[in-house]
Amino acid sequence: MASYFCRRIFQQPNAFQIAYYKNEYPDDDMLFIEETLFLTYSGHFFLLLSGGPMTKHAVLEDHHITGSTKVQTISKSQAQDWLNEHDL
User: Fold this and answer.
1) Using CA atoms, how far apart are residues 20 and 75, in angstroms rounded to an integer?
2) Phi, psi (5° rounding) for residue 75?
3) Longest pairwise C-alpha distance within the chain
4) Residues near 26 by Cβ (< 8 Å), separated by ≥ 6?
5) Dihedral-angle region of residue 19 (phi above 0 means left; psi in -120 to 50 means alpha; beta otherwise)
6) Where in the chain are the domains?
7) How far apart are CA 66 and CA 58, in angstroms?
8) CB neighbourhood size of 47 (10 A)
9) Cα separation of 44 and 28, whole Å?
10) Which of 12, 44, 30 minimizes the C-alpha distance to 3?
11) Which one of 30, 37, 56, 57 is separated from 66 by 20 to 30 angstroms, measured CA to CA?
């Protein structure tokens, strides 16, 4: 999977998975959240974020709220904060 963000291409095969978080809800639940922290070979951190329509990852599409999957670049300190927030 390739994602384009801030004119950079992030591909999961070109990055190391550092940590993975999934809440207790099943994949088809509206409260489902899945987040994965990656580190690229060039030293950049990014999160692959997925969530249902009743989560912080929800988006508005065509006048209704839906779940989404997105890539978010973060700093090293933000990566550490994310790890601490999820007790990883």
Assistant:
1) 17
2) -85, 175
3) 40
4) 32
5) beta
6) 2-85
7) 6
8) 19
9) 31
10) 12
11) 37
CB 25 within 8 A of CB 54: no
Write down the pLDDT at residue 15. Answer: 85
Q: How many angstroms separate the CA atoms of 30 and 82, rounded?
A: 22
Q: What is the pTM of this model?
A: 0.82
Q: Report how far residue 47's alpha carbon sits from residue 83's, in angstroms, rounded to the nearest whole number.
A: 11
Those residues with Cβ within 8 angstroms of residue 19's Cβ, 6 or more apart along the chain or in another chain: 36, 37, 82, 83, 86, 88
CB 68 within 8 A of CB 59: yes
